[in-house]
Amino acid sequence: MTNAVRFPAEWESQSAILIAWPTADTDWAPRLAEVEDTYIKLVAAITRFQPALVIVGDDDVEAYAEARLRSNRIDMARVHFVTAHYDDTWLRDSGPITLRDGERFTLLDFRFTGWGGKFEASADDRLVRELDSQRLFAHAIRDEIPFALEGGAIETDGAGTLLTTWECLRLRHPDASREELTAKLSGWLHQDRVLWLDHGQLEGDDTDAHIDTLARFAPDDAIVFQACDDASDSHYAGLKAMADEIAALRTRDGKPYRLFPLPWAQPILDTDGDGQQRRLAASYANFLIVNGAVLMPSYGDVADARAAEVLAQAFPGREIVQVDCRSIIWQNGSLHCLTMQLPEGLLAA
């Protein structure tokens, strides 16, 4: 790319990870204690490597969250609280998408519609504006864009190539052609290539096939993706078609990508209040990259260890840290969905 403005890859240096604390006012309420325990493990993992910026709804939530974290011996020097309003805690989709131009930053504030109007999202849609108004960010401007786009729907290699899924963008913008969407994404995100996947979706995923549950870039022209080797599984055909699509993609130099297929976990089922069972989206592709490590969702499955081995191969030199996400996928997301990385230099002192 020749543009000075860049959409950084997630593996570039970060200043912090942004999360929002779960409360009884969010969809976590029915299983809040279990979910809080997972959040504590997540914050513990993040703060081993870098700061965590934790959004809370008010002073009482902050005091409670701080007490829980302190009692679990979290390094509180690396935990910083900020007060803001939020409907729920999926910050990958409601948080800022950050571009950088040298030491200056642009916070892209796209519309957040609750994944196409599925859920109430008015507070989440105002979140970037509210955070920016508190002067949290150094040398940054906010660019409000009247277009629905979630951070989990896009993946960049940091060098001008974007990876996304047609299913999600088609449903958000049914009147737009692929060519129109390619042009819009390229312009706003300063990308000169957009690669589209037409196949792949997980049961229990209500994001309409976000790319971060399916396929992710890794350094040196690599793609890590969720595979399925069980021909009897309902996902087999779709994920096999997706794997074939990924194998056909080419780098900027016209070469095949280096591919790292992730193993397939056994089905995890949840029973709702009516006694009906539904399958949860246990994807290993929803990992979170931090400084010096990759935080990997684990599910208490025999495939966890193999997934960690694959990620270690795709991200050499980084520690692979497993975080049990069985309580999180109950609400249809995992580690990457909960978090948003903030590039190095973005946070004000």
What does this structure look like?
This protein has a single domain (14-343), classed as L-arginine/glycine Amidinotransferase, Chain A, CATH 3.75.10. The chain has 349 residues and is of the alpha/beta class. Helices cover 28% and strands 26% of the residues. The strands form six sheets. Strands 3-2-1-18 form a four-stranded mixed beta sheet. The model has no long low-confidence stretch (mean pLDDT 96). The protein contains eleven helices and 18 strands. The protein starts with 13 loop residues before the first strand and ends in a 6-residue tail after the last strand. It comes from Solilutibacter silvestris. This is Peptidylarginine deiminase.
- Helix and strand run: EHEHEHEEHHHEEEHHEEEHEEEEEHEHE
CATH fold label: L-arginine/glycine Amidinotransferase, Chain A
Main beta-sheet strand count, sense and barrel state:
4 strands, mixed
Mean pLDDT: 96
Which CATH class? Alpha Beta
Distinct helical segment count: 11
Pfam families: PAD_porph
Protein name: Peptidylarginine deiminase
InterPro entries: Peptidyl-Arg-deiminase_porph (IPR007466)
Organism: Solilutibacter silvestris
